[in-house]
Amino acid sequence: ATGCFTYDPGFTATASCKSAITYIDGEEGVLLYRGYPIEQLAEKSNFLEVAYLLINGELPDKAGFAAFEHDVTHHTMIHEAFTGFLGGFRHDAHPMAMLVGMLGSMASFYHNELDLEDPAQRRLAAIRLIAKVPTIAAACYRHSIGWPLNHPRNNLDYTTRFLHMLYEVPSEPLELNPIAAKAMDLLFILHADHEQNASTSTVRLVGSTGANPYACVAAGVAALWGPAHGGANEAVLKMLSEIGRPENVQSAVDRAKDRDSGFRLMGFGHRVYKNYDPRAALVRKMTHEVLGELGINDPLLDVAMKLEEAALQDDYFVERKLYPNVDFYSGIIYKALGIPVEMFTVMFAIARTAGWVAHWLEQQDDPENKIGRPRQIYTGAANRDYVGVDTR
Ligand code: SDX
């Protein structure tokens, strides 16, 4: 009745909901957005078109995409008083803390006049989130470095506009290498959705209570921040930097095999993929393209490749089906593009906003498809009588 059901495709799992948005075959390493293979979307599409696909279920024709792009483009600005919230954060606040705070307060600017019983109003909220999250993300970064905020430029495409808001300084026009927007757009596509991952399930659980979409997405950002989830890309770069050189890789692999060490290879393993994460292969290919195009010789790439090679030849990782995931190489690209490591997970959040709002819309359109109230296995004390403090 609550849309929860148990299925048994060879393993026991209780699904939290039904969804037609993304399909993953973890054993085979398959990822489909609305039936389209991620490899084809990565090669032929762009992030905003993928956002349209995730929300609407079909690829747009030219007029449909033009209308969607117009709607998104004309909702990219944020209320001046809203940007004032940033002043309340210390300059060294983690950008994910700022993003959670800004999105949580977004409802105070854009929710009051919304009637979420009206599908058109729900779609407007989704458009606002997709449009404004890059503006807010760039503002968080600019606040952290004490630079003036940039307003979104409507004559730029979605990803290029974001990079301009991130980097442009008043004193000189930004010369953006085309590879930067190409790589960022690919990373946005690859991070756009991923079925019932922790943050998307969080968005759906909060959405089940009837909370507004801005609160739902703020909760999703909070869940994404964890190093076991979206925070892994930041953790991977710190791990690669600590390993430092290819000759240190084997000791890192050996340490990761010792559970008592508490050390894991960040960017390795996945709750669902027990094969190579198809996204990781695409990110690794783009990493070589970006470093080649920018003429960067980043020793961390050598470390990452050596680490992957060593782990994939080690029985411990092979037996546990631990492969690189989407976070393993992405940080090297972000670093090459000048994105500070604290902003890595914010990049993930910008992309995943498309998936979060698609799942929220899907859920709100089907009252039966709410995540039910989870139950538990009780492991506490049995029923017992109260004892006064003097006799304890
Ligand atoms: C994302 O859900 C999604 O779709 C998420 C995501 C998305 O797009 O939304 O794909 C994005 O979150 C990718 C994952 C990013 N996280 C990391 O890279 C962090 C490092 N990875 C691990 O913490 C771990 O692999 C998980 C949490 C990702 C998955 O854990 P599992 O599959 O549930 O594995 P487990 O914790 O049950 O461990 C199984 C065994 C254990 O050893 P044994 O008890 O059998 O001896 O594998 C070991 C673990 O110790 N193990 C690892 C390891 N991951 C699991 N050992 C070393 N390094 C690792 N990374």
From TrEMBL:
The keyword Transferase applies. Keywords: Acyltransferase, Transferase, Tricarboxylic acid cycle. One of its GO terms (molecular function) is citrate synthase activity. The keyword Transferase applies. InterPro entries: Citrate_synth-like_lrg_a-sub, Citrate_synth-like_sm_a-sub, Citrate_synthase, Citrate_synthase_AS, Citrate_synthase_bac-typ, Citrate_synthase_sf, Citrate_synthase_typ-I. Pathway: Carbohydrate metabolism; tricarboxylic acid cycle; isocitrate from oxaloacetate: step 1/2. It catalyses: oxaloacetate + acetyl-CoA + H2O = citrate + CoA + H(+). Belongs to the citrate synthase family. PANTHER family: CITRATE SYNTHASE (PTHR42871:SF1). This is Citrate synthase. It comes from Novilysobacter avium.
